[in-house]
Amino acid sequence: MTYIISYDIHEPKRLKSVSKYLEDFARRIQASVFQCELENGDMEKVKKILLSMIDQKEDSLLIFPICKKCIETRIALGIELFSRKDELFMIL
Length: 92
What we know:
alpha+beta; four-stranded antiparallel β-sheet; 3 helices; 32% helix
């Protein structure tokens, strides 16, 4: 399943930690938005780790499951801020 993960982290140290963690297996598609492909059950692991990294009273993290057809029919306007890669990373 493909997921879109976005965040709004208020403290710079937490922001850097979350960003570095997501960069290990996801592709950055906007400044605070990542896309990743995860096997069943892996999202639970990711959620648990992300919850341990954020302050739930200050930060926001959104995770959207996205179907393949929705990704293929996305509408992108303007420039792409981050280079596209043909492959997505998977958590092993």
